[in-house]
Write a structure and sequence with these properties.
The structure holds two protein chains of two kinds.
Chain A lengths: L1 E9 L4 H11 L6 E6 L5 E9 L2 H13 L3 E6 L5 E12 L3 H12 L3 E5 L3 E8 L1 H11 L4 E6 L3 E4 L8
Chain B lengths: L1 E3 L1 H11 L4 E4 L6 H8 L5 E4 L3 H15 L3 E5 L3 H5 L1 H9 L4 E7 L15 H5 L5 E4 L6 H13 L5 E7 L9 E3 L18 H12 L4 E5 L1 H5 L3 H11 L3 E3 L14 E4 L6 H9 L2 E5 L5 H4 L10 E6 L13 E4 L2 H14 L6 H16 L15 H11 L5 E4 L3 H9 L8 E2 L10 H11 L5 E6 L10 H6 L5 E6 L4 H10 L16 H7 L3 E5 L2 H13 L5 E6 L9 E2 L8 E2 L7
Parallel strand pairs in B: 2-3, 2-4, 4-5, 5-7, 6-7, 9-10, 9-12, 10-11, 12-13, 13-14, 15-16, 15-17, 17-18, 18-20, 19-20
Antiparallel strand pairs in B: 1-8, 21-22
Helix pairs in contact in B: 1-2, 1-7, 3-5, 3-17, 8-13, 10-13, 11-14, 15-16, 15-21
The chains are: A alpha+beta, B alpha/beta.
Chain lengths: ~160, ~575
């Protein structure tokens, strides 16, 4: 099952490599990974998505918690949560395609953020499923380049991940 | 406030941490540190002949004394040579602080002479590591390193120190922190009282209980408490390879080591138990055999300081996270005051069954008529000669299993071996570390002609520091355990497991290093030679003992089977 694990990490050199190293060293997979400093400059927020049986996920969270630089950790998928990912996609946009892409982008509430005579760059935010669906609907044939940020997320309601 | 250089602060911090010995080897990047070492007398430095031995010695020092071991190596090859020792300590949860020199800060990343990203290399095999970036941070980093290495589930911590940060040209105000607090590292101590209660209820009302105790009991200083708990429960106890000595090996409630080469009775007891109490053990693959067939009829209670050890390999019914000694203490109190009473008939039945298994004599061997020694005989003779009270450091292979099976350890920190990583070459330097830490003890290395050659250069260090290790080399002229597997699994194709007459004359070799060498070839000579070896108190003695090259280690669990599926000899199985 797909999980979103989010953690506060000491904002120190080497901390990220310990997290990433743990996954390869123990044979777990990382599907997406995103990390940036928080309002507290001493902390980074790292969010990753992974999948595995309950036993594997339990091991992943325990092993991550053992890392000295991991200050706090939550499995967002255990409760209600908001997840977002940002997609930038460069699409061939000539002739009739231009209008079609614009329409599709509108339907997905995407924005065209850069335009040339032959290319549109579309920005889209949402759950990973939604981004997948957009990529599917525009089709491989018109896609020139794709970049995704990976999933970020927070628990819904009062629950917070903070010190 | 004193003003000290980075190098001086490092040495002073170690002293303030209570370090008395460093095992190491100098080189370019640590010259400032060695100069600071030279100018003080609180800390002794032991110069090894290869940095791998420095990490093993620090490890042996720690295992025997219970205090953290410290080693020091230069950048690049010095640092990479410590890697095997670090991995060995990591797998067995031994507290080490490893200090490595690094090229000067502004050269890092330039592929400078003797530069290695040792933090990167060791990342998967350390509990934590630090790169010093400012000299004034050194005392705090040292404090944290020892704190992390020795608390919770212990393990090795590495500190990488760029050369420029130890320069004598700059001085800083030295202050060693009394305490350390880290927001991201907290140590569990007491176990959950409710869980302990649940465990006690299960154990007392069990019909066929067993206690399975591992290295955590030794490392966590829980042996005395464990013994009391086992006695109070009236249950049989088995130790893992790492846990030998955690419960007295000559006690009547002891059923021997369990696992791949465990005793028949220990594995049978495990398989038939209805409640298993695992203490400081991690359900290693060398213990469980096939995990899905492991103790299928039993409720499992697991005490461990590391939450990640719980339900990792085997799903556990009653997990108890906590320091082994504190949990056992609370457990003992609860066992003593519980109103529950054990089912006497069921327990009598259980012990009758256990005695029947014992009577089967699973741990046995046949002596040769022609005087050729069996390796088991050598261990029995060693046990006699040392009164069962030596510190026995083992290398890895058949000799390790024979020693584990035939030397009964009554106390913890007497059996020292690389159980997790299985590091050949560990035995001699580990024994040296034990002797440095406890010079009054009799320290033995049980080894083979394969393992001993992996760190044999340390015979020279032994002479320099007068370390009278007794080396008991079971020489079967082959890599015995490899050969055993080749016999059993590869139809006797001995691929690269023999040396074709290339073995050195170990007696001459030992003499060349300035020690005493002895050769034993006949069973009749063994006991006298062993006596002579241990009568030479102040000398290192290397006993090159010719043993039967055809001997296999039994019992041996049958792959993919359950605990009770074992080969008992070359022809008999359960």
């Amino acid at each position: 099952m797909r999980r979103i694990i989010s953690m506060l990490l000491e904002n120190e050199p080497g901390a990220l490599s310990r997290v990433v190293g743990l996954f390869s060293q123990r044979g777990y997979n990382i599907e997406t990974l995103t990390v940036a400093p928080t309002n507290d400059r001493t902390l980074s927020r790292l969010t990753l998505t992974t999948s595995g049986s309950d036993r594997v996920i339990e091991q992943i969270t325990k092993q991550l918690n053992k890392l000295i630089e991991v200050v706090k950790l939550v499995d967002l998928t255990e409760g209600a949560h908001v997840e977002r990912e940002l997609l930038l996609v460069k699409l061939k946009a000539t002739g009739a395609q231009r209008a079609e892409i614009k329409r599709t982008a509108d339907i997905f509430r995407g924005q065209i953020v850069d335009v040339t005579s032959a290319v549109y760059t579309v920005q889209l935010t949402g759950t990973s499923d939604k981004l997948d669906a957009f990529i599917e609907s525009v089709g491989d044939a018109s896609i020139l380049e794709v970049v995704r940020t990976g999933v970020s997320g927070m628990a819904r309601g009062d629950k917070i991940l903070a010190l | 406030m004193e003003l000290l250089s980075g190098a001086e602060m490092l040495i002073r911090s170690l002293k303030d941490e209570g370090v008395d010995t460093i095992f190491g080897y100098p080189g370019g990047a640590v010259l400032h540190i060695y100069d600071a070492l030279f100018q003080q007398s609180d800390i002794t430095h032991v110069l090894v002949r290869h940095e791998q031995a420095a990490s093993h010695m620090a490890d042996g020092y720690s295992r025997s004394t219970g205090r953290p071991g410290v080693c020091l190596a230069t950048s690049g090859p010095g640092a990479t040579n410590t890697v095997t020792g670090i991995a060995t300590a990591y797998m067995d949860s031994i507290p080490l602080v490893v200090i490595t020199g690094q090229v000067q800060s502004d050269w890092i990343g330039d592929d400078a002479f003797q530069e290695t990203d040792i933090l990167g290399v060791t990342r998967p095999i350390v509990k934590h590591s630090f790169m010093v970036t400012r000299p004034e941070d050194i005392p705090e980093i040292v404090k944290k390193a020892f704190y992390i290495a020795t608390t919770g589930r212990p393990g090795p911590v590495l500190i990488d120190v760029p050369k420029d940060l130890t320069s004598p040209t700059e001085s800083f105000e030295y202050h060693y922190p009394a305490k350390v607090k880290m927001r991201s590292y907290s140590v569990v101590t007491r176990g959950h009282t409710g869980q302990i209660k649940k465990a006690v209820e299960l154990l007392v009302s069990a019909k066929r209980p067993v206690i399975y105790a591992g290295g955590g009991v030794v490392q966590g200083n829980g042996a005395e408490l464990l013994t009391q708990v086992v006695r109070e429960l009236g249950a049989p106890c088995t130790n893992t390879l790492m846990g030998l000595g955690g419960f007295p090996g000559t006690d009547k409630q002891y059923v021997g080591m369990l696992g791949m080469h465990g005793t028949y009775e220990a594995n049978m007891v495990m398989h038939h138990a209805d409640v298993v109490l695992a203490v400081g053990a991690r359900f290693d693959d060398r213990v469980t055999n096939h995990v899905e067939k492991f103790c299928s009829g039993a409720k499992i209670i697991h005490i461990d300081v590391d939450p990640a050890s719980i339900s990792k390999n085997i799903a556990v019914d009653v997990p108890i996270v906590g320091a082994v000694d504190l949990v056992l203490k609370e457990m003992l109190e609860q066992v003593r005051k519980t109103d529950l009473v054990a089912d006497k008939d069921a327990r009598n039945e259980w012990w009758k069954q256990i005695d029947a298994w014992r009577g089967f004599h699973g741990l046995r061997y046949e002596t040769n008529d022609n005087g050729l020694l069996k390796p088991q005989q050598v261990i029995e003779s060693l046990y006699k000669a040392t009164g069962g009270d030596a510190i026995v450091c083992s290398d890895v292979g058949q000799h390790q299993m024979f020693a584990a099976q035939y030397y009964a350890f009554d106390k913890p920190r007497r059996w020292i071996n690389s159980g997790g990583l299985g590091t050949m070459g560990f035995g001699l330097p580990a024994a040296m570390g034990c002797l440095v830490g406890q010079p009054d003890q009799t320290v033995v290395t049980v080894t083979g002609e394969g393992s001993i050659q992996m760190c044999i250069q340390e015979l020279s260090t032994c002479l320099q520091y007068n370390l009278p290790v007794k080396i008991i080399c079971l020489n079967n002229q082959a890599l015995g355990m490899v050969k055993q597997w080749q016999d059993m699994v590869y139809q006797g194709r001995h691929s690269s497991s023999t040396y074709e007459e290339s073995l050195p004359d170990f007696v001459k070799l030992t003499e060349a290093y300035g020690h005493v060498g002895m050769k034993v070839e006949k069973a009749a000579d063994l006991d006298a030679a062993m006596e002579e070896c241990f009568s030479l108190k102040d000398r290192l003695v290397f006993m090159d003992i010719t043993v039967d090259p055809l001997e296999h280690v039994y019992p041996m669990q049958i792959k993919e089977g359950s605990m009770r599926d074992m080969w008992l000899s070359k022809t008999e199985r359960t």
